[in-house]
Amino acid sequence: MFSIQNTWITAYQSKILPMPASVRVVSQHTEGTYQKKLVVDISNVPTPTAKQIQDAYVGAVAADVIRPEINAQGQSVKTIWGLPLAVDTLVLYYNKTMLDAAGIAEPPKNWEDFQKAVKSLSKISPENKILQSGVALGTSKNVLRSADILALLMMQNGTIMAGENNYPTFNLMPQEVKLPTTPAAQALQFYTDFANSTKEVYSWNAEMPESLDAFVRGQTAFFFGYAYHLPFIRARAPKLNFNIVSVPQVNSQAPVNFASYWVETVSKKTAHPNESWDFILFSSKAENVVKYLEKVKKPTALRALIAGQKEDPDLQAFASEILTAKSWYLGKDTAKADAYFTGMIDDVFKPEALNDAGIYQKAVNNAAVKVGQTM
Q1: Which DSSP helix (H) or strand (E) runs through 68?
Q2: Which of 215, 259, 315, 319 is the most exposed place for a label (fewest CB within 10 A)?
Q3: pLDDT band at residue 27 using 50, 70 and 90 as cut-offs
């Protein structure tokens, strides 16, 4: 058994033993009243079908773990390549003390209000030095998971990230959209404006510390992160007055969120395929995984547990996002794809791009070509 990121499944597919139609389960029981004897039972237990996985798990999981496979008869069949114990989503952490001081009663729910809040929270000196940051956003290397945040903005803005063949199309204009620039180029400009000193929302730059460090030190009011960041924040800043909410949306009637999580799967080289898959299936059942989720404070992957997590203050924001969360990359090299996404951000700040109004589309086009080479 081993764990892989949800976006790594394609890269590891040749090394994975997919879930079989059934697993052979060996159990023991004792028979007899006076002369007791141990009896070994062997049974073949059916595993969940692709339809059952789709019904039990949130949409992001079904889209990631169910992939076609060519069987011995040359037919394409829906195959399950692993199962997660949890699904993390990108959320907005905010410093309550800083928002209160700025007169902001509630965290923003849309990006327009988010921009207004950032302008109110940011303090910039006459020399353009950032004295207080409204948000850690706009650059690549010192913003944790900047590639995920940029992809989220693109998807919320209507970008079609990939076509039916999974090849990237995020640089293209969707057929139903009639705009002068593509949704992806707009998203890239929106993102980088927060690190552009000529913009009203300027609140971050490459000289600032890493985004999580800045948040725990009280240097920035907003931080985009995942559930796995929560214990780090509490450990490093136990007195920090903060809260967690869902990320702002472009369209509240059609919310889009971003999923990132680990998938448990089985190696093709295993000597114990039945035991391995039986353990994954046992661990991922609602009645068993709920104890793990409560202990580690992770968002659920199972639809049946979402309502309960909405009552947990630590998990409420994640649980409210989970049904509309998705990822997109199905290529063979996630690390390179991430690097090409952050490269888009860096392209905008190159000296030769300063007076180039078309830099956003050029950067997006360049990244799409490079990401396509990893498919």
Answers
A1: strand 66-70
A2: 319
A3: low
Alpha carbons 126 and 51: distance in angstroms, whole number: 60
Distance CA 152, CA 157 (A): 8
Over residues 104-149, the pLDDT tens digits come to 999 999 999 999 999 999 999 999 999 999 999 999 999 999 999 9
Residue 344 identity (one-letter amino acid): M
Domain span holding position 190: 90-255+332-372
Whether residue 25 has pLDDT greater than 90: no
Q: Which two tokens stand for residue 282?
A: 């046992």
The residue whose two tokens read 């661990």 is 283
| pLDDT exceeds 90 at position 175 | no
Long-range contacts of 100-108 (CB under 8 A, 24+ apart): 102/221, 107/243, 107/245, 108/248
Q: Are 324 and 257 in contact (CB under 8 A)?
A: yes
CB neighbour burial string for 246-261, b if at least 16 within 10 angstroms, e if fewer: bbbbbeeeebbbbbbb
Tally of domains in the chain: 2
Q: Residue 45: which CATH number?
A: 3.40.190.10
Do 94 and 83 reside in the same domain of the chain? no
